[in-house]
Design goal:
Elements: E1 11-13, E2 16-18, E3 25-29, E4 36-41, H1 45-64, H2 67-83, H3 85-96, H4 100-106, H5 108-121, E5 129-132, E6 135-143, E7 146-150, H6 156-169, E8 173-177, H7 185-195, E9 203-205, H8 210-218, E10 224-228, H9 231-243, E11 247-251, E12 257-260, H10 266-278, E13 290-294, H11 298-309, H12 330-345, E14 349-352, E15 367-370, H13 377-380, E16 387-393, H14 396-404, E17 411-415, H15 419-428, E18 433-436, E19 455-456, H16 461-467, E20 469-476
Parallel strand pairs: 7-8, 7-10, 8-9, 10-11, 12-13, 12-17, 13-16, 15-16, 17-18
Antiparallel strand pairs: 1-2, 3-4, 5-6, 6-20, 11-19, 14-15
Helix pairs in contact: 2-5, 2-7, 3-4, 4-5, 5-6, 6-7, 10-11
Bound molecules: NADPH dihydro-nicotinamide-adenine-dinucleotide phosphate (NDP).
Length: 485
């Protein structure tokens, strides 16, 4: 019998599901059991061509509609997503293995927020009037044209919406390629957008591996590329886009610092460290995986952290009582287990976890290492799994320097009850998305993105509008034209 997660077809182009079984088959494996639940086929060159040509053509009329008309469709799509939240969350759990307890509140809901927020903004995207004496300049905020979105595997619904909603609000069309690991959810986003009244061809989803992504990025008809992925892929995609002088948004990886001063509220700091390391089993780009704890609070912090981490409920992700799921793939599990071994070999002190969980599926226990030093592999490389490194520090000056000593710059957090210190420290941290006495909140109203190797551009908020539109300026002369001859 066909599994309920099996989509009607692999791709969604020009307002309809499309299949082409000549493409390489991509098995969809449920991470909690290891069983194959669906198959999709990578896009063939014919599918890539169909998606790009359709999106290019459809954008012309969409770009000419009023923002209010475009916004109405996005807001209707947001309502449909909310009505179907349960069904979409179950699918997100099949796609990623993340527990339903999480997906019910963090995925389709976050996607709906983006559709609603950018739908609401669409009607107010205007230019400026700039007086020049008798003359004046006016500016017009225009669509970029055809945008390509390429997603990572950790938030397939959210990424499809975070890229699609601002792109469409600004009058662009989109071809979206999900990660081959999680191909299911973006198809539902496309289906819902069209059900809400989106004209055919404006939001297309095609499957495939990196080569399909590369074909999209290098196509001369594409005006913008927005990627969520790792730093190495980001460097390749950025370079390929630069060759065609395309706009880019790069949302890449991190090794973010979470700094806990000894005056912090211990329970809140432990809660922040748990949210910033174990949500989605640690598969979150902005995670605060280097937890710097001031020496005065260290033992208290570690004791409560171990206690609370011990309460994680591993199990069937479709059971709402489960709050900790498997790694997305067997390969990712092995990568994470490799890092745990490195941590042990290099002398970090294991506080809890530290191995594969004794159950079906690709589960790794939530793991905490203490006495981690800056040069250890687990403190330098992005693990993308549930492995927290706790490092000691003495002074504010010292911890700022150590926190910034990384190629990454996505996020940073500070826990302290001294608010002047909190702002002073945050001001000196090299990171794009920061938190004070909290960690990993990502509301659509706030800009999200990194500095240094963690990326360029911002998603969400009004900032995203700047990255999905361009400004035309028009000088208007009221008098005669003076010329030298
Ligand atoms: P990858 O960088 O491996 O892949 C990202 C996407 O790019 C996938 O869809 C992939 O396809 C595609 N791709 C790979 N090579 C190319 C290429 N040459 N040209 C165009 N597209 C290509 O990341 P993962 O999927 O493994 O995701 C994990 C990474 O994503 C982590 O490092 C994490 O930090 C980062 N991330 C960043 C976020 C942020 O907002 N800053 C959010 C979430 C994750 P395929 O996988 O099918 O081969």
């Amino acid at each position: 019998m066909t599994h309920p997660a099996q989509p009607k077809a692999s791709h969604f182009i020009n307002g309809a599901y499309v299949e082409d079984t000549a493409g390489t088959p991509i098995p969809v494996i449920y991470a909690a059991t290891g069983e194959q639940i669906a198959t999709v086929y990578a896009a063939t060159p014919a599918i890539v061509e169909k998606a790009l040509s359709t999106a290019k053509e459809a954008q012309k009329a969409w770009g000419k509609m009023t923002g209010t008309e475009r916004g109405r469709i996005l807001r209707r799509a947001a309502d449909i997503m909310r009505e179907r939240n349960h069904e979409l969350s179950v699918l997100e759990t099949y796609d990623t293995g993340k527990p339903l307890q999480e997906t019910l509140v963090a995925d389709a809901t976050s996607g709906a927020d983006a559709l609603e927020y950018f739908g609401g903004l669409a009607g107010s995207l205007t230019g400026e009037h700039i007086p020049m004496g008798r003359d004046w300049v006016y500016t017009v905020r225009e669509a970029l044209g055809l945008c390509v979105g390429i997603g990572a595997w950790n938030y397939p619904t959210q990424i499809a919406c975070w890229k699609g909603a601002p792109a469409l609000a600004c009058g662009n069309s989109m071809v979206f390629k999900p990660s081959e690991t999680t191909p299911l959810c973006a198809l539902k986003v496309a289906e819902i957008l069209h059900e809400a009244g989106l004209p055919a061809g404006l939001y297309n989803v095609i499957q495939g591996m990196g080569d399909v992504g590369a074909a999209l990025v290098t196509d001369p008809r594409v005006d913008k590329v927005s990627l969520t992925g790792s730093v190495p892929t980001g460097k390749k995609v950025y370079a390929a886009a630069a060759a065609g002088m395309k706009h880019v948004t790069m949302e890449l990886g991190g090794k973010s610092p979470l700094i806990i001063f000894d005056d912090a509220d211990v329970e809140n700091a432990v809660g922040g460290a748990i949210n910033g390391n174990f949500y989605s089993s640690g598969q979150v780009c902005s995670n605060g995986t280097r937890v710097f704890v001031q020496k005065g609070i260290k033992e208290k912090f570690l004791a409560r952290l171990a206690e609370r981490t011990g309460a994680a409920v591993l199990g069937d992700p479709q059971d709402e009582a489960t709050n900790f799921g498997p790694m997305v793939t067997e390969n990712q599990m092995n990568i994470v287990l490799g890092y745990i071994e490195k941590g042990k070999e290099e002398g970090a002190r294991l506080i809890c976890g530290g191995k594969r969980a004794d159950m079906d599926g690709f589960f790794v226990e939530p793991t905490v290492f203490a006495d981690v030093t800056d040069d250890m592999t687990i403190a330098r490389e992005e693990i993308f799994g549930p492995v927290m490194s706790v490092l000691d520090f003495d002074t504010e000056e010292e911890v700022i320097a150590r926190a910034n000593d990384t190629e990454f710059g996505l996020s940073a957090g500070v826990f302290t009850n001294d608010f002047s210190r909190a702002h002073r420290v945050i001001a000196q941290l090299e990171a794009g998305s920061c938190f004070i006495n909290s960690y990993n909140d990502a509301p659509v109203e706030a800009p999200f993105g990194g500095v240094k190797a963690s990326g360029v551009g911002r998603e969400n908020s009004k900032e995203a509008i700047k990255h999905f539109s361009q400004v035309k300026s028009v000088y208007v002369r009221m008098g005669d034209v003076e010329a030298a001859f």
